[in-house]
Amino acid sequence: MTSIFQPRVDAYLRRASAVGVPPERHGRHYENMLAYLLEAVSGCHVQRNTLNYYGTEEVDITVANEKADGGLRMLPEIFLVECKNWSHPVDSTTLGYFVNVVVDRGCSLGILAAANGITGHQEHRSRAHAIGAAALVRGIRILVITASDLRGLQNPGDLVKLLHHRNLALTAHGTIHLS
Question: How far apart are CA 128 and CA 14, in angstroms?
Fold first, then answer.
């Protein structure tokens, strides 16, 4: 899988941003890429596009993490992934809604794959960064990964390192940290 990993990620990113593709397909390609990336990690299994019982909340990707050797050992057994392939940063309202979905599903971790990051400044904990800091105080960890992060992945181990680093940085900085 490693030999085709990076070219496949590039292909997903190209499809997710292709001109002439309906906007709803851009998001679906982004979700497909994230599912592919997570399934490539040892011990991870995904379930896609699941509605809650009431049909009021949809989760893009739910991940079962067996914490296998070489896998996401620093992350919980179950977590959620929200994919936003937007041309602008994700705002605080959207991030706040995702935090509530994470809480409603009884999880302690959510990963926001936001193609262009989130609003505000991490140093000032403003806008969406403020929501990330407030979530951490409530015991909810939110990791953000961007399209730029994903372009740099060469193999599944790089994704593991990225997520573990973001998880560590979240604790060290007390809020979402993107570098």
Answer: 27
Structure tokens at 54: 């009431």
CA–CA dist 135, 141 (Å, integer): 7
Residue owning tokens 């794959």 = 113
User: Which is nearest to 115 in space by CA: 160, 150, 166, 154?
Assistant: 150
12 vs 2: CA distance, rounded Å? 16
CB-based contact 99:142 (threshold 8 Å):
yes
**pTM of this structure:** 0.89
Query: CA–CA distance from 52 to each of 49, 101, 105, 112, 170 (Å)?
Result: 10, 10, 9, 19, 28
Three-state secondary structure call for residue 113: strand
Q: Which helix (H) or strand (E) holds 71?
A: none
**Which amino acid appears at position 144 of this protein?**
V
Report the distance separating Cα 128 and Cα 113, nearest Å: 14
Q: State pLDDT tens for residues 19-76.
A: 555 555 557 888 998 999 999 999 999 999 998 888 888 999 999 999 999 999 999 9
Q: Which three-class secondary structure state does DSSP give residue 78?
A: strand
Q: 113: burial class by Cβ within 10 Å (0-12, 13-18, 19+)?
A: buried
Distance CA 43, CA 64 (A): 8
